[in-house]
Amino acid sequence: MSSGRKSKYETEVLFNLDKILDMASNGFTDKQIYNSIGISYNTFYNYLKDPSKSELNDTIKKGRLLAHQEIENALFKNARGHTYKEQSAIKIKDVHWEDGKKIETEEIKIIELEKYIPPQTASIIFYLKNKLPETYKDNPFTEKDIEDIALIRNLIKDKSNVDINKNGWVQI
Question: Taking the complete model, does pTM exceed 0.70, yes or no?
Fold first, then answer.
């Protein structure tokens, strides 16, 4: 059993896995991560490529997945609309008379308000286009629909073969 010096991987990476997870889940770049734990660009990427040092890669992937899930949840929340609680300071003024004198007192109270954020149209569109792309896309027409529309347009140009009935339907 060797009692030599510990590697940078053990002292700088394994020791800082919690910090790396936190940084990755908060959107830090690879450069910010390797600078923060005190290793170089080359060392960092060599560790990422080395299958025997998978803890680093797994930790970064887990952190980024957590960030993506948090953003997706926020997008979904904005698409549905939501309520939140907010504290607000209000001033309460009391005016009364005592022995013919006007007495005024003021007090600041903190109250909790529940506020509503309505659904955000842009979030709804983005969510639907990405989660249900076949149903919600910018151009809902299929290739066949486009070909049929082009055929109808060409037939309408040559009005000798086309009649439009009283309901507006094209008859050939």
Answer: no
